[in-house]
Amino acid sequence: MSPPQKQRLRSLDTVRGVAIVIMIFVNYKGGRYYFFHHARWNGLTIADVVFPWFMWIMGTSMALSMRSLLRKSVPRRRIFMNILKRSCILFALGIILNTYGGMLWKIKMLVFRLTSLLRYPNIVLQEKWAPVRDILLYWGEWLWMFVILLIHILLTFLLEVPGCPRGYLGPGGLHNGGKYFNCTGGAAGYIDRVVLGESHMYQHPTAKGLIAITLSKGSKNDGWIPVNKNLWSISYIFATGAMAFLLLSICYFVIDVKRWWTGAPFYFSGMNSILLYVGHSLTGDLFPWSWQVGQTHWEHLLVDLWGVTLWVIISIWLYYQRFFLTV
């Protein structure tokens, strides 16, 4: 356990805190309101955006951390081994908690962490190239991400799945009169079942950025690649990533630039997000976070809000105790 570094971006921790707080509220059933439940298949609700936000912030934090380490002349091999260790720990946590479901995005997360170490630019472009310098400086990373994205697309639309049509993106089961009953998730579902096995998969499946709108044709079911959280479709990734970028941009301006807001109370939760995530997953419906209530929305809402509030209070207490759980 080590205290956080000085000169942190409060906006980054705040957005992470927003994501983890909403995620906990959603997992506590969100007052049983439909918009706090995951979309059954295609579509997007509040519940569908928080986990990719958390992933996006994870990647952003990693990039900033790596830049700091390289400036301190930390050997790349040491950085590589540290990132590999953290990736394995996060992967293991996902298997143990049985809540991360979806092998394809697990692979993407691991590969993203590894390929981020390929190179780090140290040249300064002329001011006239400023609008495109992120592409020019990081052309290697852009190339690798494109290759990984291409592999994902090829697997999704060309992999032969026994008893299923190529490129199937439907929920299987009784959909379309049960014509593709055992084809849930198409290639993604097939790879999950082969690699992880049914017992290690999430057992309760629910079965927008400009690029996402284009891929989905701005519709729920009629696009080329519908927005789909269950499959982590490309349009879903672009949509939620764009939202995370916009949210961080706003928070950065308000918190770090203008200092109109300290980020509290979300800032404290963001500083111990892993502990809160694991903690609420293990405690589940246990008292004092939750207890049995009636069937009305307001009763469920009150209990669920209390459960989230208690975790926020715990995160504040841990912050002032200088206790931070990291992996």
UniProtKB/TrEMBL annotation:
Keywords: Membrane, Transmembrane, Transmembrane helix. The chain crosses the membrane at residues 12-30, 50-69, 89-107, 142-159, 234-255, 267-289, 301-320. PANTHER family: LD22376P. This is Heparan-alpha-glucosaminide N-acetyltransferase-like. The gene is LOC106472013.
